[in-house]
Amino acid sequence: MGKAQKKTGKGRLDKYYKLAKEQGYRARSAFKLIQLNKKYAFLESARCCIDLCAAPGGWLQVASKYMPVNSVIVGVDLVPIKPIPRVVTFAADITTPQCRNLIRSEVKDWKADVVLHDGAPNVGTAWVQDAYSQSELVLMSLKLAVEFLARGGTFVTKVFRSVDYNNLVWVFNQLFGKVEATKPPSSRNVSAEIFVVCRDFLAPKYIDPKFLDPKHVFKDLAASTAATDKGTSANNTQANVFHPEKSRRKRDGYDDGDYTLFKKVPASEFIRSNDPISILGAVNKISFETDEEKEWATLDVTSADVRANCEDLKVLGKGDFKALLKWRLALREEIGLDVKTKETEELTTEVVDVTEEVDEEQQIQEELERLNAEAAARAKRDRRRANEVKTKTIQRMQLQMTAPLDIGLEQHDASLGVGQEDVFDLGGAEKSLRKQGGLSRLANGNLDELDESDDDEAPVEEDQDDEALDSEEERERKAQQLEAELDGLYDAYQSRLRERDAKYKVKEARKDANREEWTGIREPDSDEEDEESEADGGWDKMEQNKARVGESDDSDDSDEEEEVQRKRRRPTKDNSPRAAKRSRLVTKLDDSKPTAASRTAQVWFSQDIFKGIGGLDDVEDEVMAQDDDGMDVDEDEPEDLEDEHDMPSPDSDDDDFDIVPQEPDDADDMWDVEGENEDEIKQARISKYGLVTPEAMTLAQQLVNREKTRTQMINDGFNRYSLNSKEGLPSWFLDDESKFYKPNLPVTKEAMAALRAKQRALDARPIKKVAEAKARKKFKAHQQLEKAMKKAEGVNATSDMSEKEKAQQIEKLMRKGMSAGKKAKKEIKVVVAKGAHKGLKGRPKGVKGRYTMVDSRMKKELRAKKRKEKANKKR
Ligand SMILES: C[S@@+](CC[C@H](N)C(=O)[O-])C[C@H]1O[C@@H](n2cnc3c(N)ncnc32)[C@H](O)[C@@H]1O
């Protein structure tokens, strides 16, 4: 038996439920028809289909999908069905004549190829009753089917496994050539439903009405129920006794004619019965009503427990049932029905044996159910706990009881890698440091002292205030360290991502190509070699330069070189666009909003380990001291420059850090050449890149069409996204924000259409080669024309010709000149060397003008050859 499926709650939401949702079917039952049709293929050839009990319309959807277009599909149900394309539906009870009339009016005198029936009354409390009316419903649908089906047609119906099943199948067999019962995989195992596919309708001229009369078809119901009484229901009652803790399904329903839930048997019946176990499993109470029974109740063997147990058997456990069975045996001996033959232990073993027989399959299934339920409950519990913790944390955050760092970061997240312990356990680290008395010393930068004191166990007395201050600084330092580490990890992650990103690689390759082309900013008087070194740029070249500068300090022409270097490094107070652009190439280290990289660098270099390393501190100080005006310095005032601004001079040691980083994101900025002004560049950029996004186009159109004013647009710019302070936020966060935290600008259809049109126009433009060829042609034509005109002038100048002759000659020349470049290609006729032309030498019959003989295979073979060559080349 397959894995048990839950019939309640989420157990219903199985694979087919999800599939139905995905594929737009109204009910998961749609897959039952799909699977039935896959097996018997009755829909593809059907031209007319009637679906009885069709709501909500899953089967109708399938029929409409699989049946040929223009076929007639009719759906009926008690409840109205939402419209489905190509399907006619109405609400009616299929057991009534009105329904029949409605169908008739719909299909006219057509005959249906397929009649479907998936009807099910509400299966609930009175199971026997339901099963019966289900069978009745089947019979009613069969009645309609035989009326509307065409000869050879198919009737598909759902039948519940019940005592009526065989009778129904018998009737089907009388009316159809082939009858097969099947359970499609999408039908739940726990469901008692089964589908009967009746094919090849015999369409007899006369059908005995008894075939369709429930009274006749199901008349031996009682007999069959009695016959099955010893079957599953007997097992059920036995199981009730041996596993009273488990609730059992009544697959067989209630006994025929006995619809009461409460059952009572006299004690005498229980004592005298040969099947006491069935009685214990089936009844609620054993009563002591007759005198004899009342006497038994007073006997010693009938203890108070036994009497109490007899009052309500439904609440008893296994032990109580055993006690009752023991009591029965004892009483039987007492009243002389039995001689003492068996020991009660034996009975127990017998009982156990019987138990094992009881529905072993069901036990397995129930065990599985139990295990599944337990696992589900455990998972649910865990989920609930996790949610509770999260909710609490959020509440605490809202009450400002904790920092947001708590959320989302697992304390022992492996992805954070090494160092997370001290990262997240600042308190612990602080405590251990304080214990060692090294915190304040660490804060004072006395690393050596701290190292020494590592071995020293004696605690050092410290001023309380100092300690608090120290711990604050320490905390800050740690936090900065943590941020630096996180930034490092994030950078590594980003570079890993980029490495994987093919687009990025292409971009980088292009950039590299651009960089190679870039020859740097040339000083008019700098020599060839210097230009090269500048052009190449890069760390190595700079190192070489530095070394050379250092060496050249002693050389004779040092002053000259120094001057060149200084000129190259120092910004001038030149207001020309070139100077402005160059100043842009230099990173403004003192920008009031520190960039992520500079902040990271600051944090990195703020670590104690860098303290005392020559030059670094100075650089840092200089970085801090530099101000915005730093770029507007007169070239003629080098001393001032050095005093006021921190651009390193060639003589200082700090020229190690004379880095002129290139702006990474926009190579175009670098191409600002002398003479161009900012506005022009801006305009060029707009014409090249402007209005490339649908949002930009929408805004532009709104502005042009006066749907929005400029002020409105400016006002729109002040939204919750525009005033976010980005200061001090980590780069990963800012990256994320830039991707996802931005206003959702409206995009109109018109804007999209305009953009598409623009793109189409771009696509329609010829490629460079074609354009060049066209231009060449035009140029040649122009030359020819000029030549012709010169000749015409010559003709005009001659006196040997009459005016008429001149005119004729000139016209000829001009015609020739005008037609230059428009030479019509001589058409070559292709003659395939097959049939009559095969093996022919010389001109084939009926072919005039230029021709070429081709082999029919030649083209294909040539292509194949080229393809192979290409593939080989690649390899
Ligand atoms: C299981 S649903 C049918 C699902 C349908 N095959 C589908 O795929 O959407 C059973 C339907 O039978 C209908 N039904 C039950 N008794 C009926 C009756 N006497 N006449 C018409 N419809 C009936 C119910 O209203 C219910 O919608």
UniProtKB/TrEMBL annotation:
Which compartments is it annotated to reside in?
Answer: Nucleus, Nucleolus
Per UniProt, the ranges with Acidic residues bias are 448-473, 525-537, 552-563, 617-670
For this UniProt record, give its keywords in alphabetical order, as a comma-separated list. Methyltransferase, Nucleus, Ribosome biogenesis, rRNA processing, S-adenosyl-L-methionine, Transferase
Ribosomal RNA methyltransferase SPB1-like C-terminal domain span? 651-870
Q: Where is the composition biased (Basic residues)?
A: 835-848, 862-875
Locate the DUF3381 domain: which residues?
Answer: 244-396
Q: Which residues form the Ribosomal RNA methyltransferase FtsJ domain?
A: 25-201
Which residues bind S-adenosyl-L-methionine per the record? G57, W59, D77, D93, D118
Residues of the active site are K158 (proton acceptor)
Stretches of Basic and acidic residues bias are at 496-524, 538-551, 784-793
For this protein, the record's Gene3D superfamilies field holds: Vaccinia Virus protein VP39
Q: Where is this region: Disordered?
A: 375-395, 440-602, 614-670, 784-809, 835-875
**UniProt xrefs under Pfam families:** DUF3381, FtsJ, Spb1_C
Q: What family does the Swiss-Prot or TrEMBL record give for this protein?
A: Belongs to the class I-like SAM-binding methyltransferase superfamily. RNA methyltransferase RlmE family. SPB1 subfamily.
What name has this protein been given in UniProt?
A: 2'-O-ribose RNA methyltransferase SPB1 homolog
Q: Can you name the source organism?
A: Hohenbuehelia grisea
